[in-house]
Specification:
Number of strands of chain A: 8
CATH superfamily of chain A: Aldolase class I
Strand order of the largest sheet of chain A: 1-2-3-4-5-6-7-8
Distance between the termini of chain A: 38 Å
Oligomer: homodimer
Shape of chain A: globular
Number of helices of chain A: 13
Amino acid sequence: MPDTTANFADRLLDAIDAKGSPVCVGIDPRYDRLPEAISAGAGADASVQLAKIAEFCWQVLEAVAPHVPAVKPQSAYFEAYGAGGVETYYQVVRWAHQLGLLVIGDAKRNDIGSTAEAYAAGHLAGADKADSLTVNAYFGIDGLKPFLDVCAAEGKGAFALVRTSNPSAGQVQDFQNADGKKLYEHMADLVAGFGDAAGLVGRRGYSSLGAVVGATWPDEARRLRQQMPRQIFLVPGYGAQGASAADCAASFNDDGTGAIVNASRSVIFAHRQGQYADLPWHKAVEQAAKAFAEDIRNAIREGSR
Amino acid sequence: MPDTTANFADRLLDAIDAKGSPVCVGIDPRYDRLPEAISAGAGADASVQLAKIAEFCWQVLEAVAPHVPAVKPQSAYFEAYGAGGVETYYQVVRWAHQLGLLVIGDAKRNDIGSTAEAYAAGHLAGADKADSLTVNAYFGIDGLKPFLDVCAAEGKGAFALVRTSNPSAGQVQDFQNADGKKLYEHMADLVAGFGDAAGLVGRRGYSSLGAVVGATWPDEARRLRQQMPRQIFLVPGYGAQGASAADCAASFNDDGTGAIVNASRSVIFAHRQGQYADLPWHKAVEQAAKAFAEDIRNAIREGSR
């Protein structure tokens, strides 16, 4: 069990330092991509598929735990299997904790305040829940506050969507005001302000309210880095979504802190890549996780020169 | 089981006509507000509480089914109880279908396209799932499309957040461009465009992609009504959140169609209101549902004069 009395931002930064890897591995267990060694013989029965998914997740966690500080299970791939899938999601959270990993629950929850309280209770409150959760701040502060209250009280964290990694992000997020400020920059200002609330900023100067900033938009990330000095950036988009390590480096400060880069498919489905084809699939995952961390470390070192 | 071969917008409008009530009842089973007759003796055991919540939901569904066309279970209050709560959520969906009710699943899901596919599979695809789902369109079209594909293929629906009912909605949604257009109006334009996609517009002229427009902002709703002619508005904010029936009427067209108003707490927890105190709690729910529908009907009639 993680120490949930300490500030989440401190816990995450300390864990990054301890592993020497500012990266996390996304647990997106799409059944149709599982290694043959796992999925063989499962057929179309959903509960059998789910057992295979659980086995896959456990082996991925074991493979990456020595090399990365955190994992990011994507709730959607578990919810696709209904209540049984949700049970597996919580099991994955507990397994990750047993292996000393921090957990960023990727669920992008959002609602009005009274309802957000219920989401915070289900996904964040308590030592057996995720250490932090992705949230969507379209509702403004009253939809975010219930999550922040849990963060302050229990050493948990939240990452608010600012600039998402997907191709159509700009349709909404590039909407701009008369001064040329875009919506995602306005969102960045709000998140920076909300993140200064009592109990959120840790001894290392970062807030437990971080920001999701897609690596697929490096110029935007570079400006956002200045705009949200206290936010840890959760950076999706590396690998399968097309961003390079150099693109990811834009989200870090000169001292090499301030962000954690996520890769999902390029690590957990590494067995599908030619260079790992000769390895047992969980060894492929381990090698891909190590290579991913090394790639990001090098890019940060290059960037800070 | 509902007929899921027909267009969702048509199914919803026909159901509204059949019941003569353009309203739905939100199923937000906050445990601490349950009637004493239900919660008595449950204590702090979560699984016992959950069984009480299930019993409460069934009785609410039975009480309101003769009077309203649809219910809107709020996923968060079920997720607060973990996987067991999610199982109960799906049970409530199936019960509602057995009672001839349409189900608007209130989960406000959102993510990049590949992940949104998994959410659509878990929450919308299949006759035993909700008939429609609330979604958050911050990602733009690629985060919405997987939901719309299920809508077109299976006669399901989605309601995208445009203007939320909560006090701080404007912090994000009032961000405005050089022409004075606000973000929620920009979102309305996008939703109106997305809603014209193949397979979504029904014989009655409305799209299966609707919009969430809070009743707490009637002036905004009146303008949005012009801006999104093909969208059915899902209108939260009546009752406990402070909006009146007249405020809700702003979301309807002159012919009395085009919106469905939701009330949650003011109906399902009616036993807490003085005027219903002498009734058994489920009779209070039934009376409150009838009074709610009557209130909205009258306001629409007034508004169209």
